[in-house]
Design goal:
The protein has 447 residues and is an alpha+beta fold. It has three domains: 31-193, no CATH class; 201-304, Immunoglobulin-like (Sandwich), CATH 2.60.40; 308-439, Lipoprotein like domain (Double Stranded RNA Binding Domain, 2-Layer Sandwich), CATH 3.30.160. The chain has eleven helices and 17 strands. The strands form four sheets. Strands 12, 13, 14, 15, 16 and 17 form a six-stranded mixed β-sheet that branches. It has a four-stranded antiparallel β-sheet with strand order 4-6-9-8, with no helix packed on it. The protein has a four-stranded mixed β-sheet with strand order 5-11-10-7, with no helix packed on it. The longest helix has 27 residues, at 413-439.
C-alpha cells in the first residue's frame, strides 16, 4: 500500500490549456478553398489578426500587378518599361474589387497567419469597368511642366505614372495591351528612374577599406543641387549591393543644406574585394505608394576582407626545454596557408606587401614539457595564441591549446614531445583556420 501511495500523481489545479493546432495551409501556403490554378492568393503573418490581414492584402495588391505584367511579358519584353519597373507595385487596390476578395485567418494565440485571395475570372470580369474608368482619368499627352523644385517634379511624374500604369495593367488583365498607356507609363518611369542624373552631386567617403568585423571608418556623404537649389526633404534610401551584406545607418532625406550622410556599421562580402553601397531616390516614400520603379542612384565602392587581399604572418614560439625537437608549428602553418590560398608574409616580396589591404598575424607561444607521473612519461603542450589584426593591433581571437600525451616507462621522450607539438599545432590551426577563412572568404564561398 505504501508503494502504491508513493506513485500516485497529485491532481493538477486550475484551467488546462491545450495547444492550438494551426491548419496545414498556414504552413504550406496552399489553402484548400483557393487553389493556385484559379486564384491569386497572398499569405502573410502578424502578431495580431488585423496586422496579418493588412500584410496579406498588401501582398495581394502586388501579386495582382505582377500577374497583370506577366500576361504582357512577351509584348513588354526588351522595353525600357520592363527594365525599369522591377519592384512591388500597387497601382490597383483591393478596394477596387469590393467583396470579391476572399479572406481567411488562423491563430495559435501568438501569431496569426492570414490569406487574401481573388478568383482570376472574377479579376478579369471586374477589370473591364475599372479600365473604362481609369481611361477617363488618363492624362493627355501634355507632359508635366518643368519646375525648379525636384519634390514637385517627383509628385507630378509619379501621379502621371500611376494613372497610366494602372490603365496598362488593367488592359492586360482584360486581354489586350493599351499601347498609348504603355508609352505614357514608360516615359514617366524613365523620368523618375533618371532623377539622379539631373542633379549636380558631390560624393565623398569612397575608396575606404572596411575594418575587420566592422564597417567603414569615415561616413559616406552626398551633397546635391537641383537646378541650383538644395533638394531639402528629397527622400533617399541606402542599401548594400548583393551579394555583399552589411548594416547601414543613413539619412532618409537631404537636409536643409542639401546633404545626406550614411554610416557603414558593418560590411562583409562573399569573396569579392569590394562591396558597393547605394543611395537611391526613395520614390515610394515620396509618392506615398509602391510605384515598382527601380531608381538609378549613387554608388560608393568600399574594400572588404577577401582571400585576395589578406596577408598572414605568424610568430608562435615553441619552447621545448631540455627535450628539444624540431619546431613543427611554422611548417604546419605554411602548409595550411598555401593549401587554402592565403598569402603568407614571407612569400611576398617587401615591395609587393603594400598592395594587401588587410594583414593578420598568429602570435603567441606553446610550451612543451615532459614529466614523470605515476610511473609514466607525460608530455604536456600548453600556451597562449592570438589572432591579431596587424593594422589596428586588435586581438580578433584568443586560444589556449592544451594537449597531454602519456607514454610508457620506456617511451622515447622526444617522440612524445613531437606528438604533443603536432597535436597542439593542429588544434590551433583548427580553431584559427575556420575564423581566418570566415573573415576572408573566396569568391565561390558563402561567409
Amino acid at each position: 500500500m505504501l508503494s502504491l501511495a508513493a506513485c500516485t500523481q497529485p491532481q493538477r489545479v486550475g484551467v488546462s490549456v491545450d495547444p492550438v493546432k494551426m491548419p496545414l495551409w498556414t504552413r504550406d501556403g496552399k489553402h484548400p478553398d483557393f487553389p493556385a490554378s484559379t486564384y491569386l492568393a497572398a499569405y502573410a503573418s502578424g502578431d495580431d489578426a488585423q496586422r496579418a490581414r493588412a500584410n496579406a492584402d498588401a501582398l495581394l495588391e502586388s501579386t495582382i500587378v505582377r500577374y497583370a505584367l506577366s500576361l504582357g511579358e512577351r509584348q513588354l519584353a526588351n522595353t525600357r518599361f520592363a527594365q525599369i519597373v522591377t519592384g512591388q507595385a500597387d497601382w490597383i487596390t483591393l478596394s477596387d474589387f469590393g467583396n470579391s476578395v476572399a479572406r481567411d485567418a488562423a491563430s495559435d494565440g501568438f501569431e496569426t497567419v492570414a490569406v487574401s485571395a481573388l478568383n482570376m475570372e472574377e479579376l478579369r470580369f471586374r477589370s473591364v469597368p475599372l479600365l473604362q474608368q481609369a481611361r477617363l482619368k488618363l492624362p493627355s499627352t501634355l507632359e508635366p511642366p518643368e519646375v525648379d523644385d525636384i519634390n514637385k517634379r517627383v509628385a507630378a511624374w509619379s501621379e502621371r505614372f500611376v494613372l497610366s500604369a494602372r490603365v496598362l495593367a488593367l488592359s492586360l488583365l482584360c486581354g489586350e495591351l493599351d499601347r498609348d498607356a504603355h508609352a505614357l507609363a514608360e516615359r514617366a518611369a524613365i523620368e523618375l528612374n533618371e532623377l539622379a542624373t539631373h542633379m549636380d552631386v558631390t560624393q565623398t567617403g569612397a575608396n575606404q577599406a572596411a575594418r575587420l568585423m566592422g564597417g567603414a571608418q569615415h561616413e559616406l556623404q552626398l551633397s546635391a543641387l537641383y537646378r541650383g537649389r538644395m533638394p531639402s526633404s528629397f527622400k533617399v534610401a541606402w542599401f548594400v549591393e548583393a551579394p555583399s551584406v552589411g548594416v547601414l545607418s543613413g539619412f532618409t532625406e537631404f537636409n536643409l543644406t542639401g546633404q545626406a550622410y550614411c554610416r557603414v556599421l558593418s560590411l562583409s562580402s562573399t569573396g569579392q574585394e569590394y562591396a558597393a553601397v547605394h543611395c537611391v531616390p526613395d520614390l515610394d516614400a515620396m509618392a506615398g505608394r509602391k510605384l515598382g520603379i527601380a531608381a538609378a542612384g549613387w554608388r560608393w565602392l568600399v574594400a572588404v576582407p577577401s582571400r585576395k587581399n589578406v596577408l598572414l604572418s605568424f610568430d608562435v614560439k615553441e619552447r621545448l626545454g631540455p627535450n628539444a625537437t624540431t619546431p613543427v608549428f611554422s611548417e604546419a602553418c605554411v602548409t595550411w596557408s598555401r593549401l587554402n590560398e592565403v598569402s603568407l608574409h614571407d612569400d611576398i616580396a617587401p615591395k609587393d606587401r603594400a598592395r594587401f589591404l588587410y594583414a593578420v598575424a598568429i602570435e603567441g607561444y606553446i610550451d612543451v614539457t615532459v614529466r614523470r607521473q605515476r610511473g609514466l612519461n607525460v608530455a604536456h603542450a600548453s600556451g597562449q595564441v592570438v589572432l591579431r589584426d596587424a593594422g589596428s593591433n586588435a586581438v580578433l581571437f584568443r586560444y589556449a591549446p592544451s594537449v597531454i600525451i602519456e607514454g610508457g616507462d620506456d617511451a622515447d621522450t622526444s617522440e612524445l614531445v613531437l606528438q604533443a607539438q603536432r597535436e597542439a599545432a593542429g588544434d590551433v590551426l583548427l580553431e584559427f583556420g575556420a575564423r581566418i577563412l570566415g573573415l576572408f572568404p573566396l569568391a565561390q564561398e558563402r561567409p
